[in-house]
Amino acid sequence: MVIKGSVAVITGGASGIGETVARRLSAEGASVVLGDMNQEGLDRVVADIRKAGGKAAGKVLNVTDDASTAAFMDFAIAEFGAINIVAPCAGIIRDAMFVSPDKETGKIKRSMSTADFRAVIDVNLVGPFITMREAAVRMVDNGWKGVLFTISSIQKEGGVGQLNYSSTKAAMALWPKILVGEFQMKGITGIRVVSIAPGYVGTPMVKGMDQGALAKIVSGVHLGRLIEPEEIADTMAWVVTNDAVNATCIEVTGGMISGLIAK
Ligand SMILES: NC(=O)c1ccc[n+]([C@@H]2O[C@H](COP(=O)([O-])OP(=O)(O)OC[C@H]3O[C@@H](n4cnc5c(N)ncnc54)[C@H](O)[C@@H]3O)[C@@H](O)[C@H]2O)c1
Question: Of 35, 156, 172, 262, which is most buried by a Cβ count within 10 Å?
Fold first, then answer.
């Protein structure tokens, strides 16, 4: 598959990984359609891409909403005539311990709220489900070939303090095999599904973390620094152009070894 001339729909396109993927695919000649809750961010990224000579359009989108997501896909088709690359990059974190006892009394002082559990499931799990389904229906109906991405995370292995987030990211790593298996059974050829599992990437999501905790995490990364969003975009661009990469999850972490104790 070639990037030039293809159409990419990118959720979470107003920030971080989504924004960077949009810039990269556009630089290689794709038309990019960005969806996000953040209108201001969308306007900024779309204007930048157009200024650089790229083809871009943006639409406010709530990935947890069926109608909003269907309208986003129809908008992409109306703008650029197809859908080939689907990058569901919208995501949130709401970290908390499952239960936290008080140091003195040993009694539970706090626990993860149902609202925080549900919010992350809704955006990070239900969101990609709706995004990928609404895109896939249109791709199959029109015979458009391409790649559906899922965005997993190294936390697919179990992030302490991230019961909600890790649950969604484990699912994202699993979906390529399920979906490609179903495509194979149903004779749907030409649509691959690939998951990308980043380590800690220097985006607003991570830069907003507790800096002490972040420094500790980075000390356990073999590369010794945060991953750049461009390094994730680079991997995704390579996946698009390599038809043999399919039904798999690719880690891009700089070398994070679970259970490693940094010196
Ligand atoms: N940054 C990292 O280290 C890292 C690591 C692994 C995986 N990821 C994943 O990559 C994806 C992007 O993360 P990021 O670091 O770029 O985050 P980010 O916060 O920079 O960007 C996320 C974007 O999603 C948008 N968004 C949130 N809820 C939405 C909704 N309901 N509908 C539409 N848009 C919504 C936000 O407005 C924001 O623009 C997420 O799925 C995240 O879990 C990030």
Answer: 35
Tens digit of each residue's pLDDT (9 = 90 or more) over 110-159: 999 999 999 999 999 999 999 999 999 999 999 999 999 999 999 999 99
168 Cα–ligand 1 center, Å: 13
CATH number assigned to the domain comprising residue 24: 3.40.50.720
Alpha carbon of 119 to ligand 1 centroid (Å): 13
3-state SS of the chain: helix, strand, coil percent to 5? 45, 20, 35
Q: Which of 72, 80, 144, 165 is catalytic?
A: 165
Residue at token pair 């986003």: 72
Type of residue at 100: S
Range of the domain at 248: 7-252
**C-alpha angle with apex 202: 168 to 97, nearest 5 degrees?**
40
Q: Is the pTM of this model over 0.85?
A: yes
Look up 200 and say whether it is catalytic: no
Q: Angle at which helices 114-121 and 163-185 pack, to 10 degrees?
A: 30
